[in-house]
Structure formats: C-alpha cells, structure tokens
Amino acid sequence: MKMRFHPALVMLFSVCLAASGPKTIEQLKSEAAAAHGGQQGKLYAELAHRMVDVASTQFARNEAEKGQATVLEILDYAAKAHDIALNTRSKMKEVEIHLRETQRHLENMKRTLVADDRPPIDAAEKKLVAFRQDLMDEMFAPKKKEHKQEEKKDEKK
Which of 10, 86, 92, 147 sits at 20 to 30 Å (Cα–Cα) from 130? Predict the structure, then answer.
C-alpha cells in the first residue's frame, strides 16, 4: 500500500516548520528574562553565542565602538549564565557547551579584526575560559563525602 501525501498538507507542514525557525535575539532576551533556574542560564549562554554574530557585523561595518560594546554585552550574558548554572547546579553542561562555542566564535572573529581591536576580544576569551573552567570543576569535582573520606585516609598514612 502506497502512502500519498496531499500537496496542501506538505505545504502547510513546510510553512509551520519555517515559522518555528530560529528565534531572534530580542525573543531570546525576553525568554531568558522570563525563565527560571537552569533554563535561564542556558538561554543566557545561547544569547551570548548569538550576539557574537552581531559584534562581527558591527566590526565588519567599521563600527568598532559598537562592536566592543557588544562584546561587553556578550560577557555580561555569559557571566549571568555561568552564575545561574553554578547556583542552581542545573544545565551546567549545556551552558558550558554554549560558552565554548562562544569562545571559539570570538576567536574566529578576532582573526578578521585589525590589531587595535583585538585586545578586548582576547580579554573576553580569557573570561570565557575561566567561566568554562569553573563549570567543569563543579561538574567533575569529587563528591563531598568521598572527598572527606580521602582526606581521612591521607591523615592516617
């Protein structure tokens, strides 16, 4: 038995998929502000990642001051994501992944810039590395009970 799809249904499905496309930065900002817990941290991290394209466009248009301001905004969103993920201990992996992608995206963007515009981007990258390391340390830190037991064993030796 052959299944046939009605062309109108296929068209309707296509339109629905297109309408549910990627969110705009403004939509992400409002969604992140309204979210709670780990989901909010994840949205702020995604927002930081998406803002790199905005900064890249500003630098390409020779609007270095706007680009630098956007990089500061990226760091602000990344810091919020970092803090929320650590405080809630939720969605840390997703936040770390988005921050890693943001760091790499900034690094690629930096290569296209003139030398005078690069130092603030370097500083932003270093902050992102520190945020990511904090998250990794927290995710893979030994549990408190295990840590205390290891300390007692070391003291006995």
Answer: 147
Which pLDDT band holds residue 15 (cuts at 50, 70, 90)?
very low
Mean predicted lDDT score pLDDT of the chain: 84
Q: For 78, how many CA atoms within 13 A lie in the half-sphere containing its CB?
A: 31
Instruction: State the pTM of this model.
Output: 0.76
Host domain of residue 98: 25-138
C-alpha–C-alpha distance, residues 150 and 128, integer Å: 32
What's the total number of domains in the chain?
1
Is the residue at 96 inside a domain? yes
Residue 13 lies in a domain: no
User: Which of 119-124's residues contact partners 24+ apart within 8 Å by CB, and which partners?
Assistant: 120/68, 120/71, 121/71, 124/71, 124/74, 124/75
Alpha-carbon span 116 to 64, nearest angstrom: 10
Helices 92-110 and 64-88: crossing angle, nearest 10°?
A: 160
